Amino acid sequence: MKLDDVRVHALSLEAVTEEPHHTYSSFRVRGKIFVTIPPEETHVHVFLGEEDREQALAMHPASVEKLFWGSKVLGLRVALAKATPGVVRALVTKAYETRVHKDAGPPRTRRTR
What we know:
alpha+beta
């Protein structure tokens, strides 16, 4: 999959912007990062929860690997040349949904006095 296709898909999602993140580029929803693009532009980093990461690793071992920050796994590193467009789009969409859901938090209850 080409990076331009990833960009078109990510930017088609509601409230998404593309912004710099140090030497990387990033896709954000309401200012929160859900995908980064390293400078070489051959991979994307998709930030997913453990269950979604493990499922993707099991189903697509040739194109995805764990993304580490120190000893902590934060998401997946997806090789664009090896991944099918459908897989990349699905992972980007899932990372977006995860970020939106995480930011929504639990429902608020109204306090009465």
